[in-house]
């Protein structure tokens, strides 16, 4: 049998030593690490991958309650057992609310500690196994090296189309000029900056209130309404938010701005697919060629970066073959130019793939093909 891996988080060395002594006497247990405050415990989870965290409540830097919430939000399979002294029952209730599975009252004896760990581990191992696994949403990012080529139009319509069969999150990460809220007629909704300002970014439950529910399968996190707000949104917070959210969706669609900011680079890194959007005019081709060179220098492989030509029309003088020669890259797909449908859809705040006409337009069919061709 694999040993139960335990991390001890307590700022008092004496307590850690006692717990260590007891645990070392048990063959089924193994101590994988110690932490002297809540933050250290949070930081060590990824590397040490403990099955169980023994967590003190009162600790400096980050207390045991907040540490428990952070750990269980990102690692729901980790079992947190709270160690507390008598008379902290209010805290205990809170701890359970924040995701702790069990508690023991200090001072405890040998048998209490060993049995609590064993029983809690066995109980939750079974539940973890039988429970539906958390999702690990595939991340599909819409990017371009020239503005106005149709990233947002395509991201929104692909999001709505995929939500017909999958659970989808649409993230507006064009943090300065994001306009997805206009495309879905929801300009008064909350945005990512509200979640950050309210410090409600530690769990799915907290973040949920800032998502716009477009339909039962599609949630949207909007970009701030003012460009200057983007200054307060760094890579760390974006990474945290995406890590928490993606566990609840099959697919995460990300719309981006035209920049290589820290946030954008992070998103490009964690994407399963980057749909590199271009138009077919000379200026677009030039910028896309340069942008694709950046993709290569970032080390992304060909399967990850897919070139999509939007507003394609064979009458425009440049064909698919010629574009491929310029890019030295295959074109994954083309989306037809259809100003009437697209403009109407944006102006009415209703994505065009919602059209319930019996006969589908070419552009709707192209979005369907795009969704089917992506391996998700
Ligand atoms: N397939 C299409 N056919 C016709 N017009 C289109 C098509 N796709 C996008 N457009 C038009 O192009 C304009 C820009 O689209 P969109 O806002 O989606 O681009 P973007 O790349 O997100 O721009 P930005 O760089 O500002 O974020 C819109 O006015 C839209 O109507
Ligand atoms: Mg846009």
What would you say this structure looks like, in words?
- With 376 residues, the protein is an alpha/beta fold.
- It has 2 domains: 4-130, Response regulator (Rossmann fold), CATH 3.40.50.2300; 138-373, P-loop containing nucleotide triphosphate hydrolases (Rossmann fold), CATH 3.40.50.300.
- It contains 15 helices and 13 strands.
- The strands form 2 sheets. An 8-stranded mixed sheet has the order 8-9-7-10-6-11-12-13, with helices on both faces. A 5-stranded parallel sheet has the order 2-1-3-4-5, with helices on both faces.
- Helix 1 (13-24) links the parallel strand 1 (4-9) and strand 2.
- Helix 2 packs parallel to helix 3 and helix 10 (235-246) runs parallel beside helix 11 (262-270).
- The two termini are 36 Å apart.
- The chain binds adenosine-5'-triphosphate and magnesium ion (MG).
- Residues 144, 147-153, 174, 258, 310-311, 335, 337-339, 342-343, 346, 363 line the site of adenosine-5'-triphosphate (ATP).
- One of its GO terms (cellular component) is cytosol.
- Pfam families: AAA_31, Response_reg.
- The modification 4-aspartylphosphate is found at residue 56.
